[in-house]
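Reading is simple: each integer encodes one residue's backbone shape. The lines below illustrate:
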Amino acid sequence: MKSMTGFARIEKSNENYSVALEIKSVNHRYRDLFFRIPVRYSAIENLMRASASAAIARGHVEMTLRVIEKTAGSGEIYFNKALAESYIAAMQELSEISPSIASDLSADAIIALPGVAEVEIGAADIDDLWLILSEAMDEALEILNKGRDLEGSALKSDLEAKLGNIKAITEKIEKESESLPGLYAANLKKRLEALGTTIDDSRLLAELAIYADKSSIDEEITRLKLHYDHFYTEMQSSEPVGRKLDFLMQEINREANTVASKSSSFPISISAAEIKSELEKMREQIQNIE
């Protein structure tokens, strides 16, 4: 079981390139990959995305790549016209606000602005860069997943402890529910005696049968136990289980609500509330599980 939170940073170098790769991951409903790559190397994003997708099933992942070329490579100039126009418009607006500010709109000044002109790397150079970058990717993703595994183990231990708590509370509820029909019969007899009313045994048994049927939580207890077993089994899986566990939390919560609404016992209502409190803590943890 993996957490979705992790971090890794790797630097690699060969005769042509030095690369620095940083990966951060946090929880997210789906797999969401975000790349910060210099425009010159944007063509390499698809290779990085495929590599990351094979190693990460779920989470928001940000990958930042920095590259230093040791030798001159080939490529074409990429001119970002829209960005250049935005810079020019901003300069003109600034000059209008304060005439004392000079507006340098020379081609040299504009072309030197960040992102306006970049040299796009050629296909051959992309292949050459990927040789070193793929090694950095493999190592960084391995470090990232080791960290996610470690945190996942801690989350698993915590969830198992909380699951043990709610199982114990459920057993307490089950025992309490077994005594309810007898308590109801005793209280009913006392009330009738206080009123001076008599009732035959067959009528009393009928009343008890109706009460037992309306207040029975046997089915809910059985389903809760099945959900607990399923939850524990899923936690042992090496596959991504975050969504499955979240679904089971909803099912357990629904059964706990039903137990509380069907039972007229104050102790059972308190115990059901305790289960819901533990579930809320578990749900917060599950949001971080892949």
